[in-house]
Structure to design on (686 residues):
């Protein structure tokens, strides 16, 4: 007998808390744990720089990882259900490439800079707008094609093609861009959770929480969609509206995370599978919250691994996520017959 | 006595598709009604418009003209949600419910009745359990849907339609891809449910033999020739089934309710058998060997050979050349070439 859903909620929440704490304690600069706790309690740090490091770097980074992990994973889950495809996620379907192109247009053509995450307010908004328009356009295109092309493998191939086209467009933009623009775009493309300052954090949190809340509100139609569009329609689901809401939600979450943290691969693809393996169900009532928590835990874990070299520097995020994600996907593909989830 | 109110009624209904400005009419002037407590089978060749009719009845596509009334009210006057409480469907679509328990799958049918998050109340749970018991898969409630046999999965989908609590249930070829036992079980189940739960059930099928046994009414759909509706026996005995498949070499056997290829008899033989069963199967064997069988006492046929079958191991053949006895159909048919009289 499988443990109940609340068992997973509690265990995963504990893991998230643990990893969150570990993220606060670890970093390039060695700060004793007691000091970190004292700083977080609002007391004066023993060294002047430490307070800044904890408040301006570690806290925003941990919160960003927590929120981005959750939103990338939830996006992956929504897309896998909507496209009835275990390999769907924002990066494979080209949605994050769309967001990248939007960002590239802003950073490279606009000549903006994102160095050190200290983006000017207007630049900051235009990056989000670029990412949002890019991702929603690709998502809309794919949803439109999905009504014409029933074969989901073909749809994935189209997503991959869109990815190629956008990356060639980005290369062209790179060619004409300033050195500074190219640099900040390359750094952005490596992916990291440190792009958000404490001042930007409340807005970022609000934006992500809105997206996640929208996903939670879609649980009922998502479950109906497991039966396929015609059954869902018969259960009183307005397909058109549901598709649009899903498009907006995933576009929104992908755009925001991609704009701030770069195109992060594999978390969105792998975490829903981890959640299915854990809970043993495709029922979104439990799957969605577990995916959300597992996504946060995974992202915090990845960020922790990035920080491992300590004072030697930080490993790019996109070098770590495939190491965690790829084995999960391989496992799911190899055991496909046994796992039932997409039969 | 009052005639019972029809669940659904079509008057001068035209069905078909509109693509752009072009209207493709599949059927015109259809008149029909479905009554509660009756199982109706929709029969017709492939391409005769069965699916179009079912989709129109399920309100998944609108009629081109004419009236379609659900419980005395135009079907277009119902909201999606109201409709989902009145019409339940079982389709042949591929689903991705393998990772759901059978219980969760059936519970999806409660969606038209549950709240925004689809939470199940005690009454909902009770209805799901009743439906699982009614279709006979209560013991499989906590299995994965992927672990069910095809027949059991079909039963689960029927249970889903039951918990929707719709007065009208439409099934698109529910017995396709099933083995004989499951076919009979499913048809029998539907017949029982129609009567016990007082619902109107319409199903399309190619299992004509089963339909003739269990359907209260038949709808015979012929390409470009409209639809004939009526009680099964009325239709059989009026010869309506003879013209269902407009193919010169396919004949309907009213006696046994089966379609068979026309006998291209090159030779004739008189036949007499101890009982109906022997007569039928002897005729079957002889027809297959291109004999036309005549009654033994048919006038003016004394010159033809006469076969008398007293039991499966006592077959006596009288020809102009004399008398011969056979102990099996095998030995009889081996000599089939020798006792022929060409006509």
């Amino acid at each position: 007998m499988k443990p109940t859903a609340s068992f997973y909620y509690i265990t995963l929440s504990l893991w998230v808390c643990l990893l969150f704490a570990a993220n606060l304690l670890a970093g390039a600069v060695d700060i004793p744990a007691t000091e970190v706790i004292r700083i977080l309690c609002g007391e004066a740090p023993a060294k002047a720089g430490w307070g800044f490091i904890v408040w301006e770097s570690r806290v925003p980074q941990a919160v960003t990882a927590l929120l981005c992990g959750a939103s990338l994973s939830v996006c992956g889950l929504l897309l896998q259900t909507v496209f009835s495809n275990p390999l769907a996620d924002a990066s494979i379907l080209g949605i994050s490439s769309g967001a990248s192109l939007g960002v590239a247009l802003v950073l490279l053509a606009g000549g903006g800079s994102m160095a050190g995450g200290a983006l000017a307010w207007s630049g900051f908004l235009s990056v989000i707008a670029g990412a949002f328009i890019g991702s929603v356009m690709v998502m809309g295109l794919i949803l439109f094609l999905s009504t014409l092309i029933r074969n989901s493998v073909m749809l994935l191939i189209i997503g991959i093609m869109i990815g190629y086209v956008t990356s060639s467009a980005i290369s062209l933009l790179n060619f004409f861009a300033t050195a500074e623009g190219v640099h900040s775009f390359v750094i952005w493309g490596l992916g990291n959770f440190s792009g958000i300052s404490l001042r930007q954090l409340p807005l970022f949190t609000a934006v992500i929480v809105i997206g996640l809340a929208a996903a939670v509100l879609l649980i009922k139609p998502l479950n109906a969609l497991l039966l396929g569009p015609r059954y869902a329609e018969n259960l009183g689901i307005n397909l058109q509206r549901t598709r649009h809401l899903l498009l907006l939600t995933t576009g929104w979450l992908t755009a925001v995370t991609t704009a701030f943290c770069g195109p992060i691969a594999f978390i969105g693809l792998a975490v829903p599978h981890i959640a299915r393996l854990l809970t043993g169900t495709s029922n979104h009532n439990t799957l969605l919250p577990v995916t959300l928590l597992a996504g946060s835990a995974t992202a915090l874990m990845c960020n922790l691994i990035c920080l491992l070299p300590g004072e030697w520097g930080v490993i790019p995020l996109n070098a770590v996520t495939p190491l965690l994600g790829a084995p999960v996907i391989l496992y799911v593909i190899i055991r496909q017959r046994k796992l039932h989830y997409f039969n | 006595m009052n005639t019972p109110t029809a669940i659904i009624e079509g008057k001068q209904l035209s069905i078909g598709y509109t693509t752009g400005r072009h209207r493709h009419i599949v059927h015109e002037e259809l008149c029909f009604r479905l009554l509660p407590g009756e199982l109706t089978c929709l029969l017709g060749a492939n391409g005769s418009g069965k699916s179009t009719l079912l989709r129109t009845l399920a309100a998944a596509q609108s009629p081109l003209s004419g009236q379609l009334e659900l419980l005395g009210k135009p079907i277009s006057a119902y909201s999606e949600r109201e409709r989902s409480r009145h019409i339940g469907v079982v389709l042949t679509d591929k689903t991705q419910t393998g990772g759901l328990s059978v219980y969760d799958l059936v519970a999806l049918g409660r969606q038209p009745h549950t709240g925004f998050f689809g939470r199940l109340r005690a009454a909902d749970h009770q209805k799901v359990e009743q439906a699982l018991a009614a279709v006979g898969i209560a013991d499989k409630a906590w299995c994965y849907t992927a672990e069910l046999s095809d027949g059991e999965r079909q039963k689960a989908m029927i249970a889903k339609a039951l918990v929707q609590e719709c007065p009208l249930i439409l099934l698109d070829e529910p017995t396709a891809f099933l083995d004989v036992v499951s076919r009979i079980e499913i048809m029998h189940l539907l017949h029982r449910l129609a009567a016990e739960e007082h619902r109107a059930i319409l199903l399309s099928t190619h299992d004509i033999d089963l339909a003739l046994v269990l359907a209260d009414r038949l709808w015979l759909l012929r390409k470009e020739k409209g639809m004939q509706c009526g009680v099964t026996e009325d239709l059989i005995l009026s010869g309506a089934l003879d013209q269902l498949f407009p193919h010169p070499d396919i004949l309907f056997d009213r006696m046994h309710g089966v379609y068979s290829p026309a006998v291209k008899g090159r030779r004739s033989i008189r036949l007499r058998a101890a009982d109906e069963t022997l007569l039928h199967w002897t005729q079957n064997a002889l027809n297959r060997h291109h004999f036309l069988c005549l009654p033994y006492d048919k006038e003016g046929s004394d010159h033809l050979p006469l076969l008398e079958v007293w039991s499966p191991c006592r077959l006596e053949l009288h020809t102009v050349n004399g008398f011969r006895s056979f102990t099996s159909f095998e030995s009889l048919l081996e000599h089939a070439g020798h006792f022929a009289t060409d006509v």
